[in-house]
Fold:
Amino acid sequence: MLDRATIRAEQVRVANQRFYDAVAEHYEDVDGRRSPRLRAWLSARLAQIRGDAPGGRLLDLGSGSGFLCRCAKDVFSFRVGVDLSEKILAANKDAFEAYAVGDVNALPFEDEEFDAVTCFAVLHHLYDFAGLVSETRRVLKPGGMFYSDHDMELAFARRFRLPLQLYRRLRGAERHYHQVDQHLTPEVYELAEWQSAGVDAERLVELFEQAGFAATAGYHWYGLSPLSDRLFGTRRCKRGWGPLLSITARKQ
Structure:
């Protein structure tokens, strides 16, 4: 186990880069949850964001294999992916009009360059959220939209700690990734999944509001597994009763 009190942001950043460099050619296959149903659902969510955004320039943070940008193909007119891993971006360059290697804490873009900023299953990889919020505000145009989804929420993770541990053990994601690359040690995996214990929705909304956004959080089950899709569908839940966190914020 890591001594989390001694870990610094740079260690988390390096671990994420190493992880996604290692799985660049195999990420979608190993993850196994990016179904056609999830693509259709996410495309519909992005269409809603586009309807509220001032224009069609999209920046996707932590783009990885380009899943969100592929879903946005017929929604946003210009899609830019940014990620720490050049290897995973290059392996999926057909997903973007353009891509750049970069860190969410220091984005390589001009002020007010984008109409929407997104991230999908990215928040739990970050050491903290101060840079994400400040850089999102900087690169968004006035009225621009931020949207994130598919990170485990803290209140749910605490309430259902034991069932969640069992689910993760049965799914065996760490084991499957280790089979792809033997150098992906438990330490690298734990650092890359830095906030796997859950993202604090209330704190994140507070940070966005302090930065001048109107922000809301939602909670749901959709896309976690075929079984949960059948049981819960796309219904919204109260905090602590839906595992997946969705954040929507408009720059004022």
